[in-house]
Design a protein that fits this description.
Blueprint: E1 3-4, E2 18-19, H1 20-30, H2 32-54, H3 60-68, H4 70-88, H5 90-109, H6 114-142, H7 145-173, H8 183-187, H9 190-201, H10 204-215, H11 221-226, H12 230-258, H13 275-291, H14 296-299, H15 301-307, H16 312-336, H17 342-365, H18 371-386, H19 388-399, H20 405-434, H21 436-457, H22 466-473
Antiparallel strand pairs: 1-2
Length: 477
């Protein structure tokens, strides 16, 4: 079995070999929830132009509701997972999410009414909310400090794979649309009657794989210790890194608990002095990640590229290109997150996305459409994949004290879904009222504000144990 020796002496990990193959396999299995999250999140971008015709959706309000309703489920799932992860454990919630993904994907694909479509999209959103909360939380809690950034970033990597898979599936299933096709002929076509259904249904297979993998995951040692199951926690930690590693981790977890007055984890515990400031930082990072505007390039890619002058068949190819760029730069992020650190990557990302959006706004204003818009959107996606996309999840999973981590992560991720809902729902209205260029200008300004947020308030957590981070010593950069 491959081993990696912890290299950062500032972490609480002892200088003993970590069983890397075992740890990476656990993280990869838990991160399968991210693949389902990414697929379910983006598949709608290719399906929507067909189901909108099928359900006769014409108003911006109905179109925005159909495209954003899943985010309400994301919010419900995220809020519920705070209590559920604390009460039932991380593993059981991952199993629940896998079941919801499997059922909702089939039911959404074969819905015969708009009401049923909305209901099952929201149910799928609940699964996204649970997995997006619990998967990075779980991975962070089983990861040795020197590997934690890379291991938590696997979750973002699988999200990106899911996004690319959805884009490829959409491209492969949808038949080319004849330029001269009449509306009535197009309405009766394969795309409108069946293509969008299979785009959703494909998710059933990876959902089954995730369900099976979740059954073989060990429970989080930190959750087990908090619930008085020290023997099981110790055995899992020994399997991760041996006897000395297990002893050191158990001592570190206990010290982080005794450093504060004992309390029962609840939503109210997030209002304690010290914890409250961490919550505000995590929530601000979650909002920044969404209002950087990148998800618009996934959920409304067809509209963005159509407004830039691309035809229907070229749009699907451009969407696949964006997914490929997203994947390549996410791989680079996994390599860099534990070497460059979280703060540097976040600052780089905010600056790069801001510049891309602002230049894109100028391109629309001066009618430099087509290839310039494609290049600028690809630059924005590359910067996002390298920085804000993975690092935000890493920071959210690292910042909170052990005894309130499940609720703290739930609060931050819930804020992410609220802001994502507002972003997705308002884009058609902003685009219709202000134009695509001015809308990108607004997103660019949010990224500029993000530079100040990260520089003045976000701590560096690279190479420190979860318990060192959570005691509060890192609240200043």
């Amino acid at each position: 079995m491959q081993v990696i020796a912890p290299s950062n002496p500032s972490s609480n990990s002892v200088p003993e070999a970590v069983h890397a193959a075992y740890v990476w396999s656990i993280a990869a299995a838990a991160a399968l929830g991210g693949l389902l999250f990414g697929y379910d999140w983006v598949v709608i971008g290719g399906a929507r132009q067909f189901y909108e015709l099928y359900f006769h959706l014409t108003s911006p309000q109905l179109i925005g509701w159909a495209n954003s309703c899943a985010l309400l489920g994301c919010l419900v799932g995220s809020l519920g997972s705070g209590y559920g992860a604390e009460r039932f454990g991380r593993r059981k919630l991952l199993i629940t999410a896998a079941l919801l993904f499997a059922v909702s994907s089939v039911a959404t694909g074969w819905a015969t009414s708009f009401f049923a479509f909305i209901f099952w999209r929201i149910a799928g959103g609940v699964a996204i909310g649970i997995s997006s909360n619990v998967a990075p939380l779980y991975i962070a809690e089983i990861s040795p400090a020197p590997l934690r950034g890379r291991l938590v970033s696997i979750n973002q990597f699988t999200i990106v794979i899911g996004i690319l898979l959805a884009q490829v599936v959409n491209w492969a299933i949808a038949r080319p649309i004849p330029v001269a096709a009449l509306p009535q002929a197009f309405y009766s076509s394969w795309n409108v009657q069946f293509a969008w259904r299979w785009m959703f249904t494909v998710l059933t297979l990876p959902s089954a794989i995730f369900l099976i993998a979740s059954y073989f995951l060990p429970e989080s040692p930190r959750w087990l210790l908090a619930h008085g199951r020290e023997d099981i926690a110790a055995s899992i930690l020994r399997r991760i890194g041996g006897d000395r590693y297990a002893a050191a981790e158990l001592a570190s977890i206990r010290s982080s608990v005794t450093a504060r007055p004992p309390s029962v984890a609840s939503w109210k515990s997030l209002t304690r002095p010290g914890v409250r400031r961490i919550v505000l930082i995590a929530v601000a990072l979650a909002v920044l990640q969404q209002w950087s505007g990148i998800n618009i390039l996934f959920n409304y890619a067809a509209e963005v590229y159509r407004s830039a002058g691309y035809g229907s068949n070229d749009i699907f190819l451009n969407i696949v290109i964006t997914g490929s760029i997203n994947l390549l730069f996410t791989i680079l992020a996994i390599v860099l997150v534990d070497s460059l650190g979280r703060r540097k990557l976040m600052l780089l990302g905010c600056a790069g996305i801001a510049a891309s959006h602002l230049f894109c706004a100028l391109a629309y204003r001066h009618h430099y459409l087509g290839r310039p818009v494609l290049v600028l959107t690809l630059c924005a996606i590359a910067c996002y994949a390298l920085t804000l996309a993975p690092v935000t999840w890493v920071l959210i999973s690292e910042l909170f004290p052990n005894e309130v981590r499940s609720y703290g992560v739930a609060a931050a991720v819930s804020s992410l879904w609220i802001s994502s809902f507002l972003l997705t729902y308002t884009f058609p209205l902003l685009d219709h009222t202000l134009g695509t260029g001015n809308t990108f200008f607004i997103y660019g300004l949010f990224c500029v504000a993000g530079i100040f947020l990260v520089y003045f308030f976000v701590p560096e957590t690279k190479g420190r144990s979860l318990d060192q981070n959570s005691i509060g010593a890192t609240l200043a950069p």
